[in-house]
Amino acid sequence: MVKISHISIRRRLSATLLLITFFLCILSGRLLYVQIINSDSLRTLAFEQWTRDLPFTADRGDITDVNGIKLASSMTLYTMYCRPSDVKEAEEIAAFVSDALDIDKTLLYTRLTKKGVSEVRLCRRVTRAEMLEVEQRDFSGIYFTADSARYYDQGDFLTQLLGFTDADNKGQSGLELQYDRYLTGINGYSYTETDLIGRELEDGDTYYVAPQKGMNVRLTIDYYMQAAAEKAVKDACARYDAKSVSCVMLNADTGAVLAMAQAPSYDLNDIPRDDVNALMENSSLNAVTDMYEPGSTFKILTSAIGLETGATKNSYYCGGSCSVDGQRIRCWRSIGHGSQDFRHGVYNSCNCVFVDVALTAGKDTMYDYFDKFGLGQKTGIDFYGESAGMLIARDSVKNVDLARIGFGQAVAVTLLQLASAVASCINGGYLYRPYVVEEILSQEGELAYRGGSYVKNTTISASTSEKLKDILYGVVDEGSGKNAAVEGYKIGGKTGTAQKYADGAIAAGKYISSFVGFTEINGSNIVCLFLVDEPQGYVYYGSIVAAPYVGEIFSALFSQYDVPASGETAKAEVVMPDITDLSFSDAAALLKKSGLDYEYAGTGKVVYQLPAAGAKIEEGALVYFAMQE
């Protein structure tokens, strides 16, 4: 008989106990994982097995103007579901719903009779009236849930800046996309206890988790200024059959964007999704994304540089052109402006004057100030897709290039970029970063984001700013900007007319007509830049095409905000004479006799005039005529 030692027994017992302990540890670990670590996940799985959940889409936050007027809000639509196991009259339901909601009958019937599912979504975005029409039939197995859909309270208003959402209420463009994480709410749900095949239990409970609305975004946009700008761009686009018309308004003292209007456009409640190319083209915010050659509106910046650096002279002579590096540079007025001082050179928008200023200041000085004005740089606005504009590299600039830049050629800017630079010229020399969002607040009023003024740079001195403002007031009172004047109010500004280029050459008959104006409203300096891209017909000068609309915008705002007039006496009315078929000299003499100023194009006899003969206009108004051989 084999004798087993006590040591061997103890070893076997120890090994057995160790093995048992090991398995107990594994079991305990598994229980710990299941009951504690993974309990929430398992509880959720179990809850999903014995409940049916229906979503309730949360409202997006509102977007309002600076005064609290709603621009984008939420409306209630409905989603129709069915429980196939409870549907008793699938054919009848499919026929009725197909007629009522204009949905394919065969598709509806397929969904109504689908096997192996607890519920099926039949259609979305059902109106309340449509929902009530279906519910009146009391079909078995049919039910609705409330959804949130985006609604734009003003329709075709601030379209490109606001942007739009998709069918799932997610931002797709504009501010809706850029601030989607703030605007999007948290969806809610209802949970109903069901059996294994998804049928609702008679004694089961229903749990409801309320949706949470997204945050509200308050813009710097002023509804009344935007409304005036919207009317003006639509009127100008229709009158001149233009490719596009854009308008930007800034508070020059803060950088706040007050209006951004654009035409053609579309109603945000009726988005043309069936024409993707047109939708993309009309959804781009031209004032931020598109570059253009500014023409004579740029002369404000050249004037500011000349006055600040002493590069202006007491006297200039314009014979209709000047020569730089052997190249002839024409003034817009082929017969020239004769002798004039700097102030009247600005009034007349004389190219020769600004060629001289740019060359006198010199390349390095001009480019140093271009940097201060933010040219060739993004403004930093809180909106995506901004262009930086274009400047010829400093090292590559020749004298003839600098001469052309001086009067607004051979340089490209965005509307917002130029408006910001001009604002610095009239606010004492401060270049502000423009911004469109004032603040973002939760539904409880907690601040999540705040915009605000930020000075990027100083451009010119306060004294130079005052001198320039006085000259620009004179442009509207006496010079090429007369058509922007509003009786009894001080308005300053500058006209601009630039030819467009295609494939490196001048595109015949294609122009950009613009006017940048400024005035004071309730203690703030307001800048308004208005641009008409490719006006059709004989008329294309900014003084005729764009300036009157800035005057209309300011006039509407003076009335809206009860800005008192200075009490100046009204100008006398005159009747526009008939100058058709007259030579230039005869037409000019007749207009001068009538007390009218003029701009013209072409040579030969007059074939077109604006206004028409017999129209009553103010004495001293600027009129236009075109001639043809």
Automatic annotation (TrEMBL):
Q: Which GO terms describe its cellular component?
A: plasma membrane
Give compartment(s): Membrane
- Note the coiled coil stretches, chain numbering: none
SUPFAM superfamilies (UniProt xref)? beta-lactamase/transpeptidase-like (SSF56601), Penicillin binding protein dimerisation domain (SSF56519), Penicillin-binding protein 2x (pbp-2x), c-terminal domain (SSF54184)
Q: What is the superkingdom listed in this entry's lineage?
A: Bacteria
Q: Please give one Gene Ontology molecular function term for this protein.
A: penicillin binding
Instruction: Share an example GO biological-process annotation for this protein.
Output: cell wall organization
Member of which family? Belongs to the transpeptidase family.
Protein name, please?
A: PASTA domain-containing protein
Question: Which organism is this entry from?
Answer: Candidatus Caccalectryoclostridium excrementigallinarum
Organism lineage reads as:
Bacteria, Bacillati, Bacillota, Clostridia, Christensenellales
